[in-house]
Amino acid sequence: MTISVDQILDPITKNLLLPSIFELAIRDEKKEELIRLIAGLHNGSLIDVLAEYGAVDQEKLGFKLYTVVEVFAGVLELIDAPVADVMFRVNQLDGAGGAGFHLLSSFEKYCLSDPARLEEAFRLAKDLYPETNLLHVVLVAGSKVEFDLFQSRVIDLIASDESRLRALAMQALSRFHYDGDVKRAVATLQVVRNGIQHHDESFFSAALTTVFSLAAIDQVVEDECRELVSQILKAPNDFVIRTAAKLLMMERSSTPESIVSVLLIKFRDVNPSDNEAINFISLGLGHLLTVGKVEDVLGLIEFLLSKHSVDLSMSNFEHLIWVLDKPENTILRQRIITRWLLSGKNKLCSSAVQLTSWNQGSNIVLSADMSLLHEIPPHAALLLAMRACGWMFAYPVSAASLMISILDLASDVERNEVEEILFNPLLISYGGSVKKYLESVRVDISLEAKNMIDRLLGRLDSYHCGLQSVSDVKELETPLAQRQAYQRQFNRKMAESFRSAEKDSLMTALMGKPSVILYGNSSIHYVYHGPNGERTRQESPMHSVSTSVEFPSLDNIDSQGLEYMLRAFKVGEVDL
Amino acid sequence: MKLIIREYLAGLRERDELDALLPDLLSQMGLDVFSKPGVGGRQYGVDVAAIGCIDGGPETVYLFSVKSGDLGRTDWDGSSPQSLRPSLNSIIDSYIGSHLPAPYRDKPIEICLCFGGNIKETVRLDVSSFISKNTKDNVSFSEWNGERLANLIERYFLREELLPEHCRKLLRKSIAILDEPDASYLNFKRLIDLLLSDEVSTPEELLTGLRQVYLCLWILFSWSREQSNVESSYLASELCVLHSWGKCKGFLSGSTKMHVSIKNTFSAIQLLHVQISTHFMVKSILPHSNKLHALSVAVFSSCSTDVNLKMFDMLGRLASVGMWNVWAFERLSEVERESEYGKSVVKSIVTLQSCMAAIILNNPVLNTPCKDDQGTDIVLASWFLSLDFGLDIAVDEWLSQIGGAAQYQLAVKNKYPCNLREYYKLIEHPQDGEAYFQEVTAGSMLYPYLALLNSLMGKVEGFDKIRSIKKEFLGHCNFQFWFPDANSEANFYNNKAAHGATLSHVSINGDGGMLEFLDVLFKECEESASFDSLSAIQLGHWPLIVIACRHYRYPVPLHFFKRRYVQLKSAWLSA
User: Fold this and answer.
1) Is B325 on the interface with A (CB under 8 A)?
2) Are strands B109-115 and B139-144 parallel, antiparallel or unpaired?
3) Closest Cα in chain B to A493
């Protein structure tokens, strides 16, 4: 079914064209046909689409505005209209409904469809819209037709006193099509070099964008670019660093190594509270890790975590953790965990724990990087076991697996110590998960390790027998009054915790205030379809959701001793 | 036990006491009591009548004529209508012939001469002649004296009915809630307060009260033992010993019959306390001493504070049991110490010491006291472990662990020892803020005592650790020692009122180190002579002070360590 002319013209008489455009555009995917029809009507002078779009009421159209503007953008590419009118309307609609990209892209095509339009558009943009995206679009479009002319025009604009105009012009240079032309690139870089004397953060940011766009052209250009990047980032500036981080993230595969190296050094000055910059860095580093720049990435991360130990944690680098959580990066993650645990630095050790605990992987099996153990002087294996227990106690299987992995490298004395640590506090605290893990690995390990596990499991059985034997000792049981007092306190804390969690809960945000069902196990409600009172009855069964967590038993029996022991494992040295 | 019951029975009056007890005893033995004492006199000599079998014998009618105390000449055949012989004659002449219920007339009849004490030798012949003369085919006689009654009571009837009416309710409550020992103990405490109240003024009343205390404790213990939970009776036994001592200490040195009776009864209470505490240790604690965490787990709580409180409490008890053994050993002569008994006492002490050391090792919660008055338990345990009975125990290592843990807890401000006492506050401890920290650590006897113990062991490192704690974290804290004063004798055993004097702001940072510290403390000991005036010290019952300190949460008087100080000082001076 095609769209008829009347479907366009009738609404115009009722001042309902724009809502009708939305309805027609979304129906049966007829957007392209609609665009052609409107453009034809405009070109045939049956309607004035620019005038009709002058009546856009953004509030009234609401979410429909995006589609309406999208249609206008399509029409723009096909109509014949005065440049000034088009630019006026485009400037008016720029940003409306979030369809700015379509609009500017179509405007560029509109300009390119007739080179005469470019000249007029440049003049109008410079005079009437100097600080808008229109100028940027016109410059980029012009560079596609007459590169040198428009490059020189940009250079002239950069000499302007207006900082926004300068930055906009510099930004435009990054989108010029150099097509590997070194001479043109060098000319642009010269502009950059001259411009950065002004120390303007907007300009620096735009200059960085331009430099990044040129760096891959040629080695000479790359060297020049590296030098410029160094200069631009010489004085730390949050905005500029954020731009650099964003560029690294976006151009991660095309940015030359020499510039990446400069960036990794300059990123050390990032503001830890600039979450956007940190997030860009994380996204950029994730890629670098996978292409083998491990040392550089770790150098930066370790520096930042140590320097901003209070403000920054590994969880700020969520993408990086996500990358390390991929199966293909398992060995890399184990290397990092081993390295950080052995570093003896609290911040890095706690970061290693975050690598272990991310993505609900609270009990992932780990293995130490043996090459790192060889590098460290005596008792590294035992030291790693202590650190693993101290820092990863809340993730017992991870800690235990790390310990088991080093057994073959450990000396007899160390192995005995590791066995003790495995038993107390790990195994006796987590008689469920750690026991299950040990039972599962005992077939795939060396004989010595297997014997140790057998001994450990035997000791655990004896330990549990010992605990069972006191079941008839009633004299030590907690008095009722204390039990009740503790229960009251516990309930109060749980209620506070629940309220606090509920306040920030995604479910609460999505569902609003919960309905309380007092009886039954399903909920009945009606869905009303329209003004006629049509309704559908729906019955939603309720489901129970549960999760289980293994709490360390030692936390009840000897909480202070446990804390003290773990503290000693975290910061203590090997003493054999 | 039987001795006390017998003596208690001997002290009961005939009317409303002994004859009130007897029907219940007979019922408990399985007999059918068909006649009880009524108001308005006897029924032809019979106070109580019952029918049934005793020890598998034939079904017999038992007719009791009850007398109080010993049976003397006037009680047997005096001018009083209450004399026994006329009563027996009435039974033979009138009761059996005309008042015995018809269904029982063809049954064998046993006339029981019942009295709380014994038959005096002066009337033994008369009684025997009477019995021989009146024994017939179906009528026999038997003697239910104090010994026999005590045997039967111990066997069938260790129950509240032995007590006066007004005490029964409290005993009943104590027994009914044995599985909630604290509540049971509180009821028993009220019972003790009643039995040994200030209204008990005469020696006779005191003796009766003491015997009732003893019986109550026995009853409580036997029920506790049956329910496998002697917690309540342990606590009650400490209270009984202390309160009894408070009441009878004036009678312990006399030699009259009353003095001896009171002394013996107190000894029985004291012995029962030792028996209960030993039972508690042997059954519930010692078998688990070598098992890692076993005793901590026995607290069965998800609150770590509960485990901490219970374990230190248990440690203090173990130490006080040990001290009773040490006391028993001290009282032996050189020859007796070499005897089998002497060796068995030493063996008990060594066993307790080694078990205590194992408990500390296997229950690391004992390295981290959570409240200041646990210092008393630590002092008692350290003291007991330090006594040389041939076992080498590294007490200083334990003290060092405690000091180190406290230092760490103070540094991280987490669960550091505080002077809070109420449970509900302890489970909320610690809270944030410097003001809170200063408040709950405003005063301490734990740290000064740790310094003292380290000093007495000559452990400079341990002493310096406490100095360091004081300097780094507790500059505001009032380090103090407590000394008994003139009021202590009146209040130490019953805890009626606060007593004693505190030496405040004791400095441990003097240039003279440990020696200067000890000199100051033991100089004060000399000034505080009230300790030596305490009756428990004067009469050689010093473990009572240990129990009082443990039970009422008082610090252990320094005077106990004076001898060690003198030894140490002379060694230092000679070095």
Assistant:
1) no
2) parallel
3) B428
Three-state SS letters, B331-387: CCCHHHHHCHHHHHHHHHHHHHHHHHHHHHHHCHHHHCCCECCHHHHHHHHHHHHHC
Tokens of A495: 């209620």
Q: Is the pLDDT of residue A163 over 90?
A: no
R_g over Cα of chain B = 29
Reference B382, options B561, B241, B235, B189; nearest CA is B561
Residue ranges of the alpha helices (H) in A215-256? 219-232, 238-250
* Closest-approach residue (CA) in chain B for A470: B298
Type of residue at A1: M
Report the SS3 class of residue B34.
Answer: strand
Cβ distance of A559 and B427 shorter than 8 Å: no
Top residue of A482, A490, A492, A569 to mutate, by most chain B CBs within 10 Å, is A482
Residue of chain B whose Cα is closest to the Cα of A468? B294
Say which range, A82-86, A381-385, A485-489, B443-447, has the weakest mean pLDDT: A82-86
| Greater model confidence, B69 or B339 | B339
Please tell me whether residue A473 adopts helix, strand or coil conformation. Answer: coil
The three-class DSSP label of residue B493 is coil
CB within 8 Å: B292 and A428: yes
**Cα(B528)–Cα(B503) distance, integer angstroms:** 10
Distances (CA, A) of B218 to A257, A454, B272: 89, 50, 8
- Quote the Cα angle for A39-A43-A46, to 5°: 95
> How large is the average pLDDT for residues B122-131?
90
Higher-confidence position of A303 and A18: A303
Closest CA–CA distance from residue B244 to any residue of chain A (Å) = 24
Cβ distance B424 to A469 less than 8 Å, yes or no, reads no
Question: How many Å lie between the alpha carbon of B291 and the closest alpha carbon of chain A?
Answer: 6
Classify B39 as helix, strand or coil: coil
Mutate which of A420, A463, A477, A555 to disrupt the B interface (most B C-beta within 10 Å)?
A477
E strand or H helix at B243, and its extent? helix B231-248
A485 and B302: CB-CB below 8 Å? no
Q: Which of B180, B306, B364 lies at the smallest CB-CB distance from A486? A: B306
Cβ atoms within 10 Å of B230's Cβ, excluding its own:
26
> Using one digit for the tens of pLDDT, what is the confidence trace for B395-406?
999 999 999 999
Mean pLDDT computed over every residue of chain A: 85
3-class secondary structure for A515-559?
Answer: CCCCCCCEEEEEEECCCCCCEEEEEEECCCCCCCCCCCCHHHHCH
Region at B430 (left for phi over 0; alpha for psi -120 to 50; beta for the rest) = beta
B161 to A54, B3, B113, B304: CA distances (angstroms): 106, 18, 22, 42
Instruction: Give me the amino acid identity at A84.
Output: A
Find how far residue B380's CA is from the centre of its chain.
18
The pLDDT value recorded for residue B40 is 47
Q: Looking at beta carbons, which residues of chain B come within 8 Å of A492?
A: none
Q: What is the pTM of this model?
A: 0.78
Distance from CA of A416 to the nearest CA of B (A): 19
**In this structure, what DSSP letter does residue B43 have?**
B
Three-state secondary structure of A268-333:
HHCCCCCHHHHHHHHHHHHHHHHCCCHHHHHHHHHHHHHHCCCCCCHHHHHHHHHHHCCHHHHHHH
Structure tokens at A215: 């760096």
- Contact residues, A window 24-53, toward B, CB-based 8 Å cutoff: none
Partners of residue A539 on adjacent β-strands: A524
- Cβ–Cβ < 8 Å for A170, A207: yes
Mutate to test the interface with B, among A476, A554, A556, A567 (most CBs of B within 10 A): A476
Contact B227, B179 (CB under 8 A): yes
Instruction: Work out the average pLDDT over B191-206.
Output: 90
User: What is the rounded CA–CA span in Å between residue A575 and residue A567?
Assistant: 15
